[in-house]
Amino acid sequence: MTIKAIAAAAFGLGLALAPLTGASPARAEDITIGFTAALSGDFAAFGLNMRKGLDLALKELNAKGGPAYAIDAVDDRGEAREGVLIAQRFCSDSKIDVVMGYSFSSIALAAVPVFDQCKLPVLASAVTSPALSNASPYFRRNVLTDAVQGEMMGTYAAKTLGLKNIYVLNQQDDYGIGVAKAFSAAAGKDGAKIAGSESYMLGTKDFRTLLTKVRAAQPDAIFIGGFYTEAAKIAEQARGLGIKAQLLSTDGALNVELMKLGRSAVEGMIVYGMFDPSVATPATEAFLKAYQAAYNEAPSAWAALGYDAGMTLGAAVELAGKGGKVDRESLNAAFGKLKDVPGVTGPTTFLPSGDRNGALYFLTVKDGKFTLAPKQP
């Protein structure tokens, strides 16, 4: 899907602040969402932003009348063991109709078998591992996979930017490995040489030894397959070592914290994502205004995905209600039948794999803010 297609689909949104089409579902009971993500620690920004977007969507849905939406939120602290325990808790609570959130693919992967057993539908918004494709008929996500995003970025780097010699760095986990592998394959296919690759652990603070190897390879670009915390440190230390290569990174770095941590070192870095206020269309203006009014800040891509997940849930509840009782099974069936639900990140339709079709924006840091990169595919 092209950026123009996203804009056209978003135009049909009318923000999604407008009422969903069709009759209200015949259900008096509440819809209770089990929300889980890393809500504390170094990577809390993903989960907290998703929650803000979801809360805004639920406020709008509740204002319509009909079923009341409520959240039972639990911090998984970024630990797979916590993810399994939380999944077991949600499964055993008959009031939980659907599970949303998830910051880390590894935690979702650990929890999916639990949800599959109790037939509890999941709609995640920040987990991108290809291993989650076809993981369960009860698991869906409204964010693109690492394989899709990495491939798009690799093609963009080689074909659109014309980069010829790229060094790849990635965090040593499902996310970093998956996106780096897809990036390298696509960039290589389109004519770029992968000068070398290295991995690092989350939480690493000193990259100078690794970057000394990078400097010796004299790349014209460095792709950082990881989150904003390490991407900012890599940028600072690379510039400190005199490395002038173009810096590229992922949706994991698409966060205002990148600029706060990396300051001038991240100026010019190019990342990708499914939404950013700097490239919002007129049709998403109401969302931007509502979010700014609610939180006194601009929404991130994760907030937008959380918002769209909430509105997608509303559409699924409406559809399930037309057939009678809304419960876990009817909601899961409704998710599979949804087609082109309007949203600020584009329309949502789920593939049989549980994945979503979509497109990316390519953004650059300019004057301490994200803006649309001058070159787009």
From TrEMBL:
Signal sequence interval, chain numbering: 1-28
Residue ranges of every copy of the Leucine-binding protein domain listed in the record: 31-368
SUPFAM superfamilies the record matches: Periplasmic binding protein-like I
Cross-referenced Pfam families: Peripla_BP_6
Keywords: Amino-acid transport, Signal, Transport
Protein family per UniProt: Belongs to the leucine-binding protein family.
PANTHER family: AMINO ACID BINDING PROTEIN (PTHR47151:SF2), LEU/ILE/VAL-BINDING ABC TRANSPORTER SUBUNIT (PTHR47151)
Record's protein name: ABC transporter substrate-binding protein
Species: Ancylobacter crimeensis
Upper classification of the organism: Bacteria, Pseudomonadati, Pseudomonadota, Alphaproteobacteria, Hyphomicrobiales
